[in-house]
Amino acid sequence: MNYLDYAATTPVNAEVLEVITKEMASFGNPSSVYRIGREQKQKIERVKKAILSELQASPHDAIIFTSSGSEGNNLVFESIREHFAKEKGHIIVSAVEHPSVRKPADFLEQEGFEVTYLAPNKDGIVTVSEIEEALREDTRLVSIMTVNNETGARFSIEEIAALLKDKPTYFHTDAVQAFAQEALTVDGIDYLTASGHKIYAPKGIGFLYKSKDAPIHALIKGGGQELGFRAGTENVPYILGLEKAMQIVVAKRDELVQNYQELREYLIEKLSERGIEFEFNGVANPKNPHICNIWLKGRKATQTLIFNDLKDVSVSAGSACSAGSVQISPVLSAMFKGETSRLEESVRLSFGMGSTKEDIDAFVDALR
Ligand SMILES: Cc1ncc(COP(=O)(O)O)c(C=O)c1O
């Protein structure tokens, strides 16, 4: 198999698996007051501290473990909905956010909030000045992702954070495609969401970072776990797996980024060598160029996918979340309105730990 779809999900790292398996044999409810319960709780607290430290956050800020990036994103919007339930207000999101941001934004619109969906430029981003122009006195939340999952485009979240820092508007960034893969700081960021299965931990674990003063309201109500904001007995094995995965990716990230850059260049070289006409969609994140979205001119994406699948090469036409069927990507549609050929002929390759030039060779060979 040649796997070129790490933005969809990553394999569980062997060391992560070992940590999880070992912890599975460990016992106790973190909410119990006796020793084995307390020990479980201490492990959870240790991981929270490690994540806060990776994000250069204050120890007074909070980490809330979730089941996924999607849950974290929903939790942010639910918190804003509840906090401003009476007065409502205005929300800004980019039109290329993941559906787990766009759908909750739509829901808040139905609930009486006003939502501005900022269209991306041809690079796949919205600029800080566009956000500044859209800002209103009653803007409650700006939600702009760190790295787009389809194009790899990197938004200037640091500049957006600086713009909003002294304003009453909360800032959320969906960092599912960036956390651990690049060094992020949460200075000026109120909410940041991440997911384990994009960084070699299993599916089923993620977190929401929240600054000390950002409002939060539970989606899952019940017990007092996770500061009362996410009821349900904690998944300690997966939490420890997430910690291990973060440590591994952080330790290797410079080397990984260099490899992704080389693979990207190799892809360009091979496609050019074969006389395949192509163009990249969106600007790569220079810090983390693991996602390449390419328009293969004159080649329908459905065919590219099928020919690759026949050779057991895994690539995607868009986000895996809308996979199962190959639909025109809403992200590319927002960037290249009306450019039908480009929309129908673009595919996404994404690299990860273990990606090699042979994977690219297999992809280019399948195009023949
Ligand atoms: C940018 C982005 N946000 C959110 C998600 C959702 O994460 P999860 O699969 O953990 O729900 C994804 C998954 O593809 C993503 O790429």
Q: Which CATH top level class of the largest domain fits?
A: Alpha Beta
Q: What is the typical, i.e. mean, pLDDT?
A: 95
The strand count comes to 12
Secondary-structure class: alpha/beta
User: Could you name the CATH homologous superfamily of the largest domain?
Assistant: Type I PLP-dependent aspartate aminotransferase-like (Major domain)
Radius of gyration: 21 Å
- Strand proportion, as a percent range, falls in 5-15%
Which CATH-level-2 architecture of the largest domain?
A: 3-Layer(aba) Sandwich
Strand order of the largest sheet: 2-8-7-6-5-3-4
Spell the H/E element sequence.
EHHEHEHEHEHEEEHEEHEHHEH
Given the C-alpha coordinates, what overall shape results? globular
What kind of assembly state do the chains in view correspond to?
single chain
Query: Quick one: biggest sheet?
Result: 7 strands, mixed
Low-confidence parts, pLDDT < 50 over ≥5 residues?
none
CATH topology of the largest domain: Aspartate Aminotransferase, domain 2
User: Helicity level, as a percent range?
Assistant: 25-40%
Provide the domain count: 2
Number of helices: 11
Gap from first CA to last CA = 18 Å
Instruction: List the ligand species.
Output: pyridoxal-5'-phosphate
